[in-house]
Amino acid sequence: MPDEEGSSQTQTLQRSLIELTLAYDATIEGFGRALDLREGETVGHTSQVTEMTVELARAHGIRGENLMHIKRGALLHDIGKMGISEQILKKPGKLTEAEWVIIHMHPQNAYDLLASIIYLYPALDIPYCHHEKWDGTGYPRGLKGELIPLAARIFAVIDVWDALTSPRPYREAWSDTQARQYIQEQSGIHFDPAVVKNFLNMRFQKRLTKPIVK
């Protein structure tokens, strides 16, 4: 009977761990929705870019626990903006140079917020590095090429695509054609060329293979 008792305790522990993980993830998703509301984003913005990021990560062969870290990182991609005033985040006109300096601090803010949380540390690549650029001109650390974590390279394309195709107070949303051209032009400059290729295949190949409804 001791074996049965041990097995029961193990199952109970496993259930507790699963329930705890689900609770953590529900909290993270809640943070994502709160960030959308604070920044004036459309409802579901964070979940949408997260879904696209996970899909693109799968196209790069990422699976299992690593994929879950990417999902959590995407949900928390702008957590660092919690330390930035709404006057700057929601400013309808152009930002001043001083305001841009503050905006550029949000990846470091994210690192400072999350680095001490063991559960979320593996998800830091996106919040900390998604504004780095393939040619090394990004921020906060000026990482270049494959020194930028793959998760951040993947999310960078999704993030820019979503920003371009969403309306802003100072401009209308770009068409898919305009955004596609920009993404292609920035391949090898802002974005990892391999990620751009997979993204465009994912985004447009599906459309080409859909049946035509008459």
Any overview of this molecule?
There is one protein chain. By secondary structure, the protein is mostly helical. The protein has a single domain, classed as Hypothetical protein af1432, CATH 1.10.3210.10. The protein has ten helices and no strands. Helix 2 (45-59) runs antiparallel to helix 3 (64-75). It is globular and about 65 Å long. Residues 208-214 have low confidence and may be disordered.
What is Rg?
20 Å
Q: The CATH topology, please?
A: Hypothetical protein af1432
Shape call: globular
The amount of helix comes to 55-70%
Q: How many strand units?
A: 0
Global structural class: mainly alpha
Mean pLDDT: 84
Strand content: under 5%
For the biggest sheet, the summary is: none
Distance between the termini: 67 Å
Number of domains: 1
Q: Unreliable runs, pLDDT <50, ≥5 residues?
A: 208-214
Order of helices and strands: HHHHHHHHHH
CATH superfamily: Hypothetical protein af1432
CATH architecture: Orthogonal Bundle
Number of helices: 10
Task: Summarize the model shown.
With 214 residues, the chain is mainly α. The chain is built from 10 helices and no strands. The chain has a single domain, classed as Orthogonal Bundle (Hypothetical protein af1432), CATH 1.10.3210.
Keywords, please?
mainly alpha, about 0% strand, about 210 residues, Hypothetical protein af1432, 10 helices, globular
